[in-house]
Amino acid sequence: MLRDIARDDPQVGAIAQIVTHVAPDILFLQGVDFDHNLTGAQALRDALTDAGTRYEHVFALPPNAGLRSGLDLNGDGRLNGFADNQGYGRFYGDGAMVLLSRWPVHHAGVQDFSGLLWRDLDGAQLPIENGAPFPSKQAQAAQRLSSVGHWIVPVMLPDGRQLNLMMFAAGPPVFDGPEDRNGLRNADEIRLWQVVLDGGLGLPPAPPFVVLGNANLDPTRGEGRRAAIVNLLSDPRLQDPHARMGPTVDWSDPTPGDLRVDYVLPSADITVPDAGVVWPRDPAKADALLMYDGIAASRHRMVWADLEF
């Protein structure tokens, strides 16, 4: 990724174009490679600066993406495959997460649930095949829940108050077998936030807070255990300002098509005067806003919300 940014990759230009158009104060990105010194994330930040949008603060934690387990976690009988990592990845840090913010992060208040074992989540639904743990007891004893990460990151607002960002990127609920390992894991990755809000993993975050990220699950269409995202969207502690705004990702080739899988869910106490998904339907506007030298920024579209305190 760092190499591509240095070479002015067209995708980076497309991302910068959209970010500059929306100009959010807080920007959470998934699919951004992680390295120990955040060199790649800072290079991406610098590219956004060159396009006209400056973020003083860059934050990321070590992910599960590409983290070696030494075990057969997907049950294919082989070791050291990409899917045998704690989270899928061709290398450590492949396709991780990063927060860019105009406002400072309160580092002492950060909570990282990425190391939580799947089996240790209250009410965890672990895969079973032929009456036995899938793929093995040893695998389930080591398998982390988060495909990439689950973070609570407090950001200090200009008026001195704290906004708790509950950020994640869940794995896809497909690419498995009849045991539904990935579907079960995706559902529990989403449900983790309700366990957190219930106080099941320590003191829950105080409002105002926002749950945001890629759940990889649509509430009405596509594969997966849709009840997980339906339950989160209907949680009275949250609000869904994008409920009637349609899809957020273009998976039309191949199927399943356009789905809603990306979410920004403010706590119920926050006033949300406006919200949207950056997905112009006019082809001429799409060419101008979502394309750069013929390369799309992402199949996922930016989901945004204005918050008032």
Question: What would the keywords be for this entry?
Answer:
single chain; 309 residues; alpha+beta; five-stranded mixed sheet; 22% helix
Describe this structure in words.
- The protein is of the alpha+beta class.
- It has 7 helices and 16 strands.
- Helix 2 (10-22) crosses helix 3 (39-51) and helix 5 packs parallel to helix 6 (227-233).
- It is globular, with a radius of gyration of 19 Å.
Question: Average pLDDT, to the nearest integer?
Answer: 94
Structural class: alpha+beta
Strand content: 15-25%
Q: Measured on Cα atoms, how large is the radius of gyration?
A: 19 Å
What's the N-to-C terminus distance?
Answer: 37 Å
Oligomer class: single chain
| Total number of helices | 7
The total of beta strands comes to 16
Contiguous uncertain segments of 5+ residues:
none
Helix share bin: 10-25%
Coarse morphology: globular
Could you give a short account of the major beta sheet?
Answer: 5 strands, mixed
Strand order of the largest sheet: 4-7-8-9-12
Topology as a string of helices (H) and strands (E): HHEHEEEEEHEEHEHEEEEHEEE
Brief account:
By secondary structure, the chain is α+β, with helices and mostly antiparallel strands.
